[in-house]
Design a protein that fits this description.
Mean pLDDT: 87
Strand order of the largest sheet: 3-4-5
Number of strands: 5
Radius of gyration: 12 Å
Bound molecules: zinc ion
Low-confidence stretches: none
Distance between the termini: 34 Å
Shape: elongated
Structural class: mainly beta
Order of helices and strands: EEEEE
Strand content: over 45%
């Protein structure tokens, strides 16, 4: 079963809140998503914790 969890992150460029859909069935994932507000590429790291909320980190891609 795939669980999608809606989570908010803060864009490291413009500071806006962005809503993401996190797939809980993958323990660790990293991908790049463009900010919906300023269109800069955000490097997103997700660490899913079983039975708990995922830990999400958002960084500038070239950080
Ligand atoms: Zn932004």
């Amino acid at each position: 079963m795939t669980l999608l969890e809606g989570s908010n992150i803060q864009c490291p460029y413009c500071g806006e809140q962005i809503e993401l859909s996190i797939e809980n069935s993958i323990e660790e994932q990293q991908y790049t998503e463009d900010c919906q507000v300023c269109c800069n590429p955000i490097s997103i790291t997700v660490n899913a914790v079983p039975g708990s909320s995922a830990h999400i980190e958002a960084r500038q891609e070239n950080d």
